[in-house]
Each structure stands twice: as C-alpha cells, then as structure tokens.
Design goal:
- The protein is α+β, with helices and mostly antiparallel strands.
- The chain has a single domain, classed as Trna Endonuclease, Chain: A, domain 1 (3-Layer(aba) Sandwich).
- The chain is 29% helix and 34% strand.
- The strands form two sheets. A six-stranded mixed sheet has the order 1-2-3-5-6-8. It has a two-stranded antiparallel sheet with strand order 4-7.
- It is globular, with a radius of gyration of 16 Å.
- The termini are far apart.
- It comes from Streptococcus infantis.
- InterPro entries: DUF4365.
- Pfam families: DUF4365 (PF14280).
- This is DUF4365 domain-containing protein.
C-alpha cells in the first residue's frame, strides 16, 4: 500500500497524461503540492499552437487521488473551508483520480464547481446540518469522458 504523498503524486501524473493527450488543453500541475487549495491549472487553447495569443483562458484545479475499493465512485468529501475559498476566488474544477492496487489508473472523475454552485451546496449543507458542526461536504462527482472534457472546461 502506497503512502498518501505517493498516491497524490501518481494521481497528478495520471491526470496530467490524460489532459495533455488533448491537443487544445495544457496541464500545469504541481507535484508534491502543499499549496492550501489549488493544485494547478489547465490552459484552454483556441488551436494547438504554443502562442500565448491562442490561450482562451485557464481553469484552476484541485486534484485528489483515492484507492477506494468501491465498485463505483459517486461522491467525494471536500473540506468546507476549501469550498469557501474556491467560492471567493472564482471556483475550481475538482478531479478525483481513482487508482487501482497496482498504482494504475482505474478512472478519473470530476466536478465543475463555479462560485454559484458552491454557494448553493454550502447553503443546502447548512440547512441540513444545523445541529452538527460538519467540516466536510460530500460532493457528487461524474466520470470524465475524454470527448466531453474540452467543452466542460
């Protein structure tokens, strides 16, 4: 069984390879990342040129890796403090990289979290959990389809 740092590094590596296969996307991810909330960004391009003028924009990302032994992943727990930070800073795309026992890629899941979506998630969470002091929130995630990735970003 790999340690958490190795699991995260492998997750970032698998996602980077997956993203960089698309000619209109460029990944800029930090390995062994200890920044508070973001793990990097994806540049979305107009064409497969390396010119700065071809960059449509950048998307901030948070990458989580897991080795859960479930048959399917439907949700992932995120810190409420991270969600508050994402909400205040334009949102984020969450990627959950699911690894198998041999460190191979099992699947990649995602959830686009723009500020309004985060605001609604936090509001629902506060209404549901008035009496508890939860620090994490379960976020519904979806299997990443290579063909739908560019429009999703």
């Amino acid at each position: 069984m790999a340690n958490n740092q190795k699991t995260e590094t492998l997750g970032v590596s698998h996602l980077s390879t997956f993203i960089d296969k698309h000619e209109l996307l460029q990944s800029y991810f930090d390995k062994n990342d200890k920044t508070p909330a973001w793990d990097g960004e994806i540049h979305v391009l107009k064409s497969s040129s390396e010119k700065k003028s071809e960059i449509l924009g950048k998307v901030p990302v948070q990458i989580k890796a897991t080795r859960q032994k479930n048959d399917i992943l439907k949700s992932f727990l995120l810190d409420i403090s991270d969600l508050e930070l994402y909400k205040s800073n334009g949102g984020v795309v969450l990627f959950v990289v699911w690894l198998n026992e041999d460190n191979g890629l099992r699947d990649i899941y995602y959830k686009s979290l723009p500020p309004l979506s985060i605001k609604n998630l936090l509001k629902k969470s506060k209404l549901k959990n008035k009496s508890t002091n939860k620090k994490k929130l379960s976020i519904q995630i979806f299997k990443l389809d290579e063909k739908k990735m560019y429009p999703m970003l």
